[in-house]
Amino acid sequence: MFNLLLAGVLDLFEAVVCLYCVCIVLVTHFSVCLALTEVPSSIPENVVRLDLSHNSIHHLKPRDFQGASGLRILNLSNNNMEQIDTGSLSGLLHLHELDLSSNRLHVLQYGVLEDLYFLSKLQLRGNPWVCNYNIHYMVYWLRLHPGVRHSGLLCQSPLEYIDERVEDYMDSYNRECPKDRQLSSPDQNQDTELWGTPMELQGEIEEELEPSHLRAPQKYQIFRLA
Q1: Tens digit of pLDDT for each residue in 102-135?
Q2: Which of 51, 102, 138, 151 has the fewest Cβ atoms nearer than 10 Å?
Q3: Is cis: bond before 198, omega within 30 of 0?
Q4: pTM of structure
């Protein structure tokens, strides 16, 4: 009787043999119970859900998921992951859900999310996100994709932003940025006061009379449009 039941189960399920366990999963659902340090190669194209959580995949490299174009759900949580290279998620055009929670990610590099056209859920909690200029890409990407539900995007450093929403940090950064970057040196103010005056015209005439090889390098040029 047991043999008949086992044969029936194997007709519907695929057995995945691990070191000390046997995982019986659906053909379209692939889970891994090894202490992996990198993404398995040759993931079947018909896999729509891939669970790589609770491994030791610290670094995602370009084309790690090459060939896994059918993925809809990808779980990479609890891997102590520190880096995701641009191009590591390329080809996952139909991915709907991505779980990056409980890792050691400080930032997502520019371009990491670009192929995820149909993403609808992104889990980010439990990462030590650093709120500086490098975090801007992820926030801008999320704003350009309002249909993506995301959670857990909180600043963990620097100290003044701990537990603040990254979106709120971005708003405060944009409010303060123009003030910080204003250039108000006395020389610049003096130069602007001379625009269109006889002294400015005199300076241009003197430059024209001076041989070109003796002229000092120009910091800027003024163009007039009639």
Answers
A1: 999 999 999 999 999 999 999 999 999 999 989 9
A2: 151
A3: no
A4: 0.65
